[in-house]
Amino acid sequence: MLWKNTQNELIKITSKIRSYIGIGALTVLILLVIFAMQADGKTYIGFVTSTFEQTLTFNGNILNGNLIAFIIMQMLIVHVPLLIVLVTGDLLSGELASGTIRMLATKPISRTGIVLSKWFAATIYTLIMTLWMGFLSLFVAHWIFGTGDLMVLNPDGLLILPSDDLLWRFGISMVLAFLALWTVATLSLAFSAFAKNSVGPIVITMAVIILFTIIGTLDVTVFDDLKFYLFTTHMATWRIVFEDPFPTEDILISAMVLLGHVVGLLLLAIYRFNRKDINA
Amino acid sequence: MGLIEVKHLSKNFGSFNAVKDVSFQVNEGDVFGFLGPNGAGKSTTIRCLLSLIRPSGGEIKFFNKSLASHRLEVLAKIGCIIEKPDFYKYLSAQKNLELFARISGKNIEKKQVLEMLDFVGLAGREKDKVSGFSHGMKQRLGIAQTLLHDPEIIILDEPTTGLDPQGIIDVRNLILRLKNERNKTIMLSSHQLSEIEIIANRMVIINQGKTIVEGGVQELLDKQSLNVEITVDRPEVFEALMADKYPLLPVHRLYHSTYYITLETEERNQLTEVMVASGCGVRSIVPKRSLEDFFIKIISS
Which of A7, B106, B140, B206 lies at a CB distance of 3.0 to 4.6 Å from B120, suitable for a disulfide? Predict the structure, then answer.
């Protein structure tokens, strides 16, 4: 029954126009970045390299597909959650708002089953969005700009990663980006279990992301202990994949924190929906 | 056997007691009328029966099994419409039914979905999106969804709300077909008391969250006073007769020679004979007893 209802949820997602808004917007954004880099990428790179030009000489194709992919990921990690939440924030509350929840909840499927099937569908949608982002940013950028070493500007200085050392790093960064987006999707699903309309969970999820991000960037000691527990702190972990030496322990800790959020938020959604009186 | 047994059901929303003490029993093969004025607790009770709402107290049993501990097993044998049926507007009628068929607990083929759409008169509209459907069409689609998995019990909460007269007749005929041709047990909540009187064999009336009366529709109606409309050829003879033989009976003159009288059970048989013998020229005696009168009397008392 769980799988059958997950199939239903996927049919609902693929039949709604809003599901394609995210994919469409993502495609347009990435293509715009690629177009901008093709048109004026050398100037953009010039700003970064000018600082080092007195001490370093840059040879080869700096403006390559790997750098474009890295720039795209850096830009989009803030915006993609909004595109995901447009769909996942509506999954439970949308059924309450439209009244279809009455039909669904009187079928022989448990309330837990309803939440889990929606969560599975949200997971698949998030995975597709992440893979699409990865495909466009990495493969399309490589096709247009070719390959080359990646120049990463870290707080410690400039790091050059050889091109044959990058594919696995992009792979792991995609896994971490997926974990971050999965957390956001589950957060919006949990809010969706509390709300009666679709707008509320979408707005609240984005408000939480903005609030946590601001707290994470505030350099105030009172928040220092708190920062570790905010999922937004770990949403940017994909970036440290491009450090040398590879920070395995930090990455594993961040992955565990994000997974912990996913499990905790899912349990909250299940608990809330099981106790909910459906009066709609 | 009681297919549905509700005992001392209660439901509180905070400090508000929506349902205080509702008990009734629906037997196999019944068309069971579930009546009450607005705010009596009908919808809350039905939502408790379908486990949309968690009861605060009492017991609900289906097929002699507790709903709380056999929820999925019970829901697999129930079809329902709660108020207006809502569907996924962005999907077609057929797609909507296929979604619900997939989680109905039975293996339902596409052919059966199309047959059911035909049964409710939506053949030819199966590919149309529900967003373009009228209220009546959605109601018919709701009935199709209710019957798709061939449930043993059908629960209909206000199934004729918002329908035009033809729609109401269609739903009534459909319910009668379900009872007569498919031997379904049907629990029906409605404000259309005349409909209930025609199609229900048993009923319960609730008010202010409590059961007021339960029993067979005809049995309950037989127990109450009978209103009759009498038309005679010689009104002066009739009036003299009533003043002489039944001085305590309230007689209301409706038109020139038509009267409205309320009779107790024991006076019914005797009056006709006395009137004929008096020579007042009885043209017609029309019983005016109705569920509406009974309902209003029960609620106001």
Answer: B140
